[in-house]
Amino acid sequence: MFGIELTPEHSVSRLTDLGEQAEEAGYDTLFTSCHYNNRDPFAVLTSIAAATDEIRLGPGVANPYETHPVTLASKVATLDETSDGRAVFGIGPGDPSTLRNLGLEDQRGLRPVLEAFKTAQKLWAGERVDADGTFTAREAGLNYEPPSEIPVYVGGEGPHMCRMAGKHADGLLFNGSHPDDLAWAREQVEQGKEDRLDELGEFDLAAYASVSVAEDGEAAREAARPPVAFIAAGAAPPVLSRHGIDEERAGEIGEKISAGEFSEAFGLVTPAMVDAFCMAGTVEEVSERMEAVREHADSLVVGSPLGPDLDEAITLAAAADRSRS
To answer: Which residues make Cβ contacts (< 8 Å) with residue 253, sequence separation at least 6?
Structure first.
């Protein structure tokens, strides 16, 4: 997979144009991020589906707390129908900084994610489901023809989430841009795959990487501040320690984001954080990072911010990925 993430901070029409451009540039999968304070990801994906022909489409990633898992499964099934079988289901525990605004930060965890996508798979297979675990369902089913088989990618970066994905899912969207992090993720996935059923088929470890590319390398690094702030705020202590990043400073960034003080949060981002959590720089610099990450990952998803100029960055990031040549 060579994918791209679009953030619904822009209008639906603008994102649809970018989706068309991404397909033309050679990306084969497109994800939209899912945060309550941006536009609805499924509305965006539906619009892109109507304007494209081949690129796969999915949330990257939805969480099972804001939307009931049965309803979420139906949304993905509807997207699959709308796109003629091109849907991909990205599901994970969600961003702690924004979930804190909804009082949901304590509900994040592995079990809700696993139960949600297992339930979705049953619904897509035409079954009716009962659930009394992290959510409740009573004889729930889809009142329309089930969709084609939809790949499930778990979005996560903790050891247990990585291992669970390796055991149960089709792939892992690992929020990482540094080869050291992907090497670690590979170790976790391989542990999970030891108990993987053969019938589940091949597994795809995808680096869901923050990328900021431009002809001007310094401008690219400056544009990386916002997404790096969110990543640093949600990073686990071992990840921060791996890169020598101050845990208190990362926590302060998270507090600023939750309070809506975004400029202050972005100002707290350090060069070390940019190096750890984003592939930022010129085409040549980003290409080197992509190659290093692909030594450990099967696939790559080019994520926010892409670059200071979105249209240019979509083309430049595709040019930087030498694995496709």
So the answer is: 229, 232, 233, 265, 268, 269
134 contact partners, CB below 8 Å, separation of at least 6: 64, 109, 111, 112, 115, 116
Structure tokens belonging to residue 82: 């709308």
C-alpha–C-alpha distance, residues 260 and 23, integer Å: 34
CA-based torsion, 149, 153, 159, 161: positive or negative? negative
- pLDDT tens for residues 25-74? 999 999 999 888 789 999 999 999 999 999 999 999 998 888 999 999 99
First to last CA, the chain: 14
Q: What is the pLDDT of residues 130-156, one digit of tens each?
A: 989 988 989 999 999 888 789 999 999
Q: What is the pLDDT of residue 236?
A: 82
Q: Which CATH superfamily is domain 2-210+297-324 in?
A: Luciferase-like domain (3.20.20.30)
The two tokens of residue 183 are: 């090497």
Phi and psi dihedrals of 189, rounded to 5? -60, -45
Q: CA 190, CA 167: separation in Å to the nearest integer?
A: 9
